[in-house]
């Protein structure tokens, strides 16, 4: 199905244009917020060709379409939703007084049901993780692009090729990362109901070079101190101040006083407290990650690699982005990402074993072959929702493969061979250009590649021996 047909097929299954409140997407998932879950036909959504899985998250649906496809379907769905909204609100809609009363009653009932479900799902943990994802997911394409450019620049520098081009690549790759606090502040204010540009303005204080002339607790501040955590806190505080001003400042003065106070007060708090505290927390995260892997790398790697697939399945893995970004800002690379990437290796190994064991089922083998390239690049949702999760046991054995791969990389760190990623986004084979280590990129690549091999092999063996019971594939198909 082409993107237009896919969007057209999705819309009625989501309850129509009137039921869709917002459309967004990440690398593999179409994220649709609906007004009412009742008209959403979940079973038919899952059965739609091209849909690899559906995750229900409160009042939103995460529809797994895979990389590339989701970026083309999302704008088509937005266009159909907008067209449907204009058609309903335009002249000649034919809504009379009686129809209006019925619509109002239905709207009230829907609002009550939404409030009930919202209260049931509004646990602090879920809300926090969901909002973190909404802040950072839009930044992933830039993180990926700049990370790949940085990897290319590092490779050219190591090989002493095109030396005149290396500084240009470094500038292009570093520009976004040097200002990431501004983008985080913008997204934070947007997510929490403030004016996005004011959130960016408050967070920009963190990266301004002039903060080096400000002393706090007898110590000079450093530009960028506090990183993305400081930007989150600054923008959130700015949103609180802005909302308070909107309530008390007279309308005639609002355009002048509210922006002034929204930038000034949180800016002062950021300079004289938040940057210092967030900087200490960021440093502590880096020290904790290093200590954990240096003293218990094998155990920590086993746990992280084994538990990451369930996080991906639930869409909660995006909440780790601030930690990765903080580690990159503090240490130059994130040592957690190469370990977590082993979960994808276990998934690939498990899928290969299912492919071998399902020799008589052409449909399952076709799904595996179509999803395998994305899996090798570290995008696991197509294999999760198309293969392992529907079969049940292969999902568990894929986690086993990820655990052993993570244990290998963690043990290498414990033995003194550090492997980190200089950017986030890619995984699997796509992570090779972004690897760095304490003994150079070549050894880091070798350790990471060996970890992938362990994950592939363990996931394959565990699934081949224990993950596919006789007749399970046929029953699922």
Features:
two-stranded antiparallel ribbon; 477 residues; four-stranded antiparallel beta sheet; single chain; alpha+beta
Report what the structure shows.
The protein is of the alpha+beta class and 477 residues long. The protein has 3 domains: 1-86, Gyrase A, domain 2 (2-Layer Sandwich); 136-289, no CATH class; 302-476, no CATH class. The protein has 19 helices and 8 strands. The strands form 3 sheets. It has a 4-stranded antiparallel beta sheet with strand order 1-2-4-3, with helices on both faces. A two-stranded antiparallel sheet has the order 5-6. Helix 9 crosses helix 10, helix 15 crosses helix 16 (381-391) and helix 17 (393-414) runs antiparallel to helix 18 (441-467). It is globular, with a radius of gyration of 25 Å. It starts with a helix and ends with a helix.
Q: What letter string, H or E per element, gives the SSE order?
A: HEEHEEHHHHHHHEEHHHHHHHHEEHH
Strand neighbour order, sheet with most strands: 1-2-4-3
Low-confidence segments, given as residue ranges, are: 92-100
Helix content: 55-70%
What is the count of helical runs?
19
The average pLDDT value, as a whole number, equals 84
Distance between the termini: 21 Å
Write the layout of secondary structure elements.
Elements lengths: L2 H11 L6 E6 L3 E6 L7 H6 L5 E5 L2 E5 L4 H21 L7 H25 L2 H13 L3 H20 L6 H13 L1 H12 L4 H12 L7 E2 L2 E2 L6 H22 L2 H64 L6 H11 L4 H5 L1 H16 L4 H15 L4 H11 L1 H22 L4 E3 L13 E3 L3 H27 L4 H5 L1
Antiparallel strand pairs: 1-2, 2-4, 3-4, 5-6, 7-8
Helix pairs in contact: 1-3, 5-8, 6-7, 8-9, 8-10, 9-10, 9-11, 10-11, 11-12, 11-14, 11-17, 14-15, 14-16, 14-17, 14-18, 15-16, 16-17, 17-18
């Amino acid at each position: 199905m082409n993107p237009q047909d896919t969007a057209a097929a999705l819309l009625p299954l989501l309850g129509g244009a009137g039921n869709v409140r917002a459309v967004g997407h990440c690398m593999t998932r179409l994220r649709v917020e609906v007004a009412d879950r009742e008209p959403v036909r979940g079973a038919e959504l899952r059965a739609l060709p091209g849909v690899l899985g559906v995750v229900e998250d409160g009042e939103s649906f995460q529809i797994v379409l895979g990389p590339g496809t989701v970026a083309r379907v999302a704008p088509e769905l937005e266009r159909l939703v907008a067209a449907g909204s204009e058609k309903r609100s335009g002249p000649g809609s034919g809504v009379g007084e009686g129809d209006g009363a019925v619509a109002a009653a239905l709207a009230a009932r829907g609002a009550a049901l939404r409030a009930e479900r919202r209260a049931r799902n509004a646990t602090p943990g879920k809300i926090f993780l969901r909002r973190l994802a909404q802040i950072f997911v839009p930044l992933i394409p830039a993180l990926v692009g700049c990370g790949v450019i940085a990897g290319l620049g590092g490779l050219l520098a190591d090989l002493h090729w095109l030396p005149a081009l290396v500084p240009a690549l470094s500038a292009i790759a570093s520009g976004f990362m040097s200002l990431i606090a501004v983008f985080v502040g913008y997204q934070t204010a947007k997510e929490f109901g403030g004016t996005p540009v004011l959130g960016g303005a408050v967070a920009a204080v963190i990266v301004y070079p002039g903060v080096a002339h400000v002393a706090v607790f007898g110590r000079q501040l450093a530009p960028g101190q506090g990183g993305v955590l400081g930007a989150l806190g600054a923008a959130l505080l700015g949103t609180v101040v802005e909302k308070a001003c909107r309530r008390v400042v007279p309308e005639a003065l609002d355009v002048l006083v509210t922006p002034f106070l929204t930038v000034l007060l949180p800016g002062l708090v950021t300079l004289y407290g938040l940057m210092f505290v967030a900087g200490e927390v960021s440093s502590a995260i880096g020290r904790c990650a290093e200590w954990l892997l240096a003293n218990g790398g094998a155990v920590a790697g086993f746990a992280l690699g084994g538990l990451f697939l369930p996080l991906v399945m639930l869409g909660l893995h995006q909440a780790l982005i601030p930690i990765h970004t903080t580690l990159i800002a503090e240490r130059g690379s994130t040592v957690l990402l190469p370990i977590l990437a082993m979960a994808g290796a276990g998934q690939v190994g498990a899928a290969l074993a299912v492919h071998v064991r399902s020799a008589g089922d052409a449909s399952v083998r076709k799904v595996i072959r179509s999803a395998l390239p994305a899996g090798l690049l570290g995008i696991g949702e197509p294999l999760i929702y198309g293969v392992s999760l529907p079969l049940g046991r292969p999902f568990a054995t894929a986690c086993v493969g990820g655990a052993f791969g993570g244990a290998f990389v963690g043990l290498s760190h414990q033995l003194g061979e550090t492997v980190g990623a200089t950017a986030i986004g890619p995984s699997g084979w796509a992570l090779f250009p972004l690897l760095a280590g304490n003994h150079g990129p070549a050894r880091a690549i070798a350790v990471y590649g060996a970890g992938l091999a362990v994950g592939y092999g363990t996931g394959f063996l565990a699934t081949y021996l224990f993950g596919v019971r006789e007749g399970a594939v046929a029953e699922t198909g």
